[in-house]
Specification:
Part of the tripartite ATP-independent periplasmic (TRAP) transport system. Helix content is about 70%, strand content about 0%. It is mainly alpha-helical and about 190 residues long. It has one domain. Helix 1 packs antiparallel against helix 8 and helix 2 runs antiparallel to helix 3. The mean pLDDT is about 90.
């Protein structure tokens, strides 16, 4: 079972690392726009659309990676002092009450949203003569799928922790250390 968890973690990590490169592209586009706007006095209307689209893709496709690295926001100060079983029970409840309904809705609505955008070959309406945005809307259900897959893995982790009393080991590059350091400094290990 641990091999399956690590496989999905690796997939989420690879996707996160791949889409992290959009930051480089986004930075290049913004630098280009600043140069053309302020040095050449020739702004480009497509840059706003491009930056908006690239940031959206980065944000969506990094979701599963962030979940795999245990990086989503939570009250770590209080949460970190709970016993692992209690953490797992709390996480399991929250996955089923909030996470899965939200991600299933995102995936379903995102598929419909993307399908309609492809059907009409949707163009951006933010700027005149905006670029096509229908290819980028396909990332919405895709991101939802990867989040669902990683969510299933996290639920399995919760069940394993409830059963064993300890969290199953994550890949080395996704270990949480801040709470452990805090506990060690307070002598609560």
């Amino acid at each position: 079972m641990l091999a399956f968890l690590h496989l999905v973690d690796k997939i989420s990590t690879k996707i996160g690392h791949l889409f992290a490169w959009t930051i480089v592209l986004l930075t290049g586009i913004i630098v280009y726009e600043v140069f053309t706007r302020y040095v050449l006095n020739s702004p480009n209307p497509w840059v706003f659309d491009a930056s908006y689209i690239l940031y959206g893709i980065l944000f969506m496709m990094a979701g599963a990676y962030t979940l795999a690295t245990n990086g989503h926001v939570r009250g770590d100060i209080l949460y970190g002092f709970l016993e692992p079983r209690t953490q797992a029970i709390l996480d399991l409840i929250l996955y089923f009450v909030f996470f899965f309904p939200g991600i299933i809705a995102l995936t379903y609505a995102g598929y419909t949203f993307a399908d309609e955008a492809w059907a009409i070959k949707e163009m951006s309406s933010i700027t005149a003569d905006g670029p096509p945005i229908y290819p980028f809307k396909a990332f919405i259900p895709l991101a939802g799928f990867f989040l669902l897959l990683q969510g299933v893995v996290e639920v399995i982790r919760c069940i394993m922790c409830i059963k064993d009393g300890a969290w199953p080991k994550r890949e080395d590059d996704v270990e949480e250390v801040d709470v452990e350091k805090l506990k060690a400094s307070l002598g609560k290990n």
